[in-house]
Amino acid sequence: MGIDNIGICSGIVILMEQLIGDKISVISVYNRTKNIFSPVKIDWQGRIYIIKKIGYHHQLKIGGTLHHVFTVTDGNTDFRLDFDSEMLSWTLEEVSDGLAS
Length: 101
Prior knowledge:
0% of the residues lie in helices and 73% in strands. The chain is built from no helices and eight strands. Strands 1, 2, 3, 4, 5, 6, 7 and 8 form an eight-stranded antiparallel beta sheet that branches.
């Protein structure tokens, strides 16, 4: 796990991202009225993060498997999550300090 991207402007760090790739536990909800599936809580490295906002959600196929990718924030840290619809598993793909948003 290392720093993937740091942008520096006038000596001030404006963005820090780390590629992670860890399997994580996620509590998610499905709203049948709005037909929306979304993560609400992440358990990563023994710490619980409450999702306050979903930035975006998109779907992509990798091979024959549909993946749902979410960018979310707990208000301090931004996360990119991947839900594998075949394996029914979540992967934390990336973490950012949120300074860029």
